[in-house]
Specification:
six-stranded parallel beta sheet; globular; about 15% strand; about 50% helix
């Protein structure tokens, strides 16, 4: 990973949180490298922004793992929920991510699991910009401990919740055999 680097993966649309990610670079780009993968409706006319962020458009899904090797932290501000494919990819790659604490059912499990591994990586939507900066600073001060705990969390999560297609199909077939 690059020293002090953060990333964003997703469509470049307001509801995916790209604007909040872009605001971060104004305050942090002097000591943090920024990466963004995606495409979308937002056009970036501001050349100042383009110079400070490494943009990658239309990246094949299998190449996204290479971004995870470049970043220390993923910023996940998806307003649709936090068990998104992006966050699952981060878990699979042992990449810690900050996520917005929405009062939704699917966040309860994520929050409980992260808490079990002493990982407080959420921030309140109401205070998004201030809270996000604060969490990034917290991460930078505690990066070693967070990375150790996140790897433990990822390992636990993968064993308990992620299964291969072969295992899933075998389980489904066995279930269907029992029904017939």
């Amino acid at each position: 990973t690059s020293k002090n680097s953060i990333g964003f993966i997703g469509r470049f649309e307001k509801n995916k949180g790209i604007n909040s990610f872009l605001k971060l670079q104004d305050k942090l780009s002097s000591f943090i490298k920024f990466y963004a993968i995606g495409d979308g409706e937002l056009n970036f006319q501001n050349t100042k922004i383009l110079k400070k962020i490494n943009f990658f458009k239309k990246v094949e899904n299998y190449k996204i793992n290479s971004l995870h090797k470049k970043i220390n932290l993923l910023i996940s501000i998806n307003k649709a929920g936090n068990f998104s494919n992006v966050n699952l990819e981060a878990i699979n790659n042992n990449t810690p991510f900050l996520y917005c604490d929405f009062p939704r059912q699917n966040n309860i499990l994520l929050k409980k699991l992260l808490k079990k591994f002493d990982l407080d990586l959420s921030f309140k939507k109401e205070y998004e910009n201030i809270a996000l900066l604060s969490k990034i600073e917290f991460f930078l001060r505690n990066e070693k401990k967070i990375n150790i705990n996140f790897k433990k969390f990822s390992s636990y999560f993968k064993k308990k919740y992620l299964v291969s297609w072969d295992k899933r199909l075998t389980k489904e077939l066995n279930y269907l055999k029992k029904l017939s």
